[in-house]
C-alpha cells in the first residue's frame, strides 16, 4: 500500500463495501464497525456500505444515497473472502444493472482473497486462542479451518491453501479444511474423521469475517462432537472480524482499482475454464438471484438453507436443478445446476441424517 491513498481527496468518489447481510444482528453490527474502521483510514473519501439481503441499507439504497451526495464514480468492493457466487454473480449483476439505469460509473474491485495480510490476521486469531488456553505445544495440536463452503471449487480450494499456510506458519501438528455448507466435508462429519488421528487438542477456526448463522452452526456442531470425546480439548478460535490487517487488505483492493492493477483470477473459474467435474458450467450466464429479496429479513433458501442441505435435498426439481420459492409476495423460481457432490457422504446429506436423529430423540 502506497501513501498516496491516505491523502487521496475526491469529493466525487465513493467507496461502497458490499456485504451479504445476515439475520444475526451481531453480524450486521460487526459489518458496520468494519466499515467505520475503514472510514477512519480514508478521511478524504466517502465510504458507505450496503447488503444483498437480510438487512438494510441494500446496495441499491447505498448507491442512491451516494448519488444524492453528488458522487459520480463508485469503487464497489465485495466484502467476501473468496470469489464464489456472490462475488462473481450477484453483486456485479446488481451493480451493472444499476449503472445501466442511472449512468453512474461503478468500478468493481476484487474479493479479499489470499495475501500476507489476510494470513497474518488469521494467524493473530489463532495466537489469541493458543495463548489463552493451557500450555500445549502446537506441534501436538490439530488445526481445523472451516470455510463458508461453495459450489465453486476454486473458492473451496483457497480455504485449503489458507489452512496449509497457517499450519506451516504456526507449526501445528496437522491441519484439515472443513466447510459450513454446500460442499464436503462439513464440520460435524469432518471432525468425526479427525478425532481418529489421535490428537488431544483440536482448534476449530471459522475462517469468516463476521458472526452469524453459519458461525453459530459451526460452534454447535463442534460442541456436539466435543461432548462425545471429553478426552480431547476442543478450542473455538475467533473469526477474523475487523482486524487491522483485514482493513489493510480492503485498502489494498481500493488502491488496485485506483492505479489500474485490479484483476480477477479467471484461470480456475468454473464459468471460464472446463474444470474437472464442472465442465457443464462453462459459459453459464452470471446472474443475480437476489434482486427480488433485497432488504428482506426473510430467509433466502439459496444463501442460508444450503448449509442445512435443504436446497440439495428437499427443493430439487426432477431435472436436478434447484427451484427457490421466496413466498407468494416474492415468488421467484431460478434454476441452478445441481452441485455434483451434494450427496457426498460427508456433505449436506449428513445434516439431513442429523435432523432425523434429533426428531427421533424427541
What does this structure look like?
This protein has 362 residues and is α/β, with parallel strands linked by helices. It has helices at 25-41, 59-68, 85-102, 116-132, 153-170, 187-194, 213-228, 244-259, 301-304, 310-314, 349-361, and strands at residues 13-19, 46-51, 73-78, 105-108, 141-147, 174-179, 201-206, 233-236. The chain has three domains: 4-113 and 243-259, Rossmann fold (3-Layer(aba) Sandwich); 116-236, Rossmann fold (3-Layer(aba) Sandwich); 298-361, no CATH class. It is built from eleven helices and eight strands. Strand 1, helix 1 and strand 2 form a beta-alpha-beta unit. The longest helix is centred in the first third of the chain and has 18 residues, at 85-102.
Compose a concise summary of this entry.
With 362 residues, the chain is α/β, with parallel strands linked by helices. The chain has 3 domains: 4-113 and 243-259, Rossmann fold; 116-236, Rossmann fold; 298-361, no CATH class.
Biggest β-sheet strands, sense, barrel: 4 strands, parallel
Question: Low-confidence segments, ≥5 residues, pLDDT <50?
Answer: 297-335
Number of strands: 8
Total of helices: 11
Average predicted local confidence, pLDDT = 83
Radius of gyration: 21 Å
What tags apply to this protein structure?
13% strand; Rossmann fold; 8 strands
How do the helices and strands line up, and which of them pair or pack?
Elements: E1 13-19, H1 25-41, E2 46-51, H2 59-68, E3 73-78, H3 85-102, E4 105-108, H4 116-132, E5 141-147, H5 153-170, E6 174-179, H6 187-194, E7 201-206, H7 213-228, E8 233-236, H8 244-259, H9 301-304, H10 310-314, H11 349-361
Helix pairs in contact: 4-8, 6-7
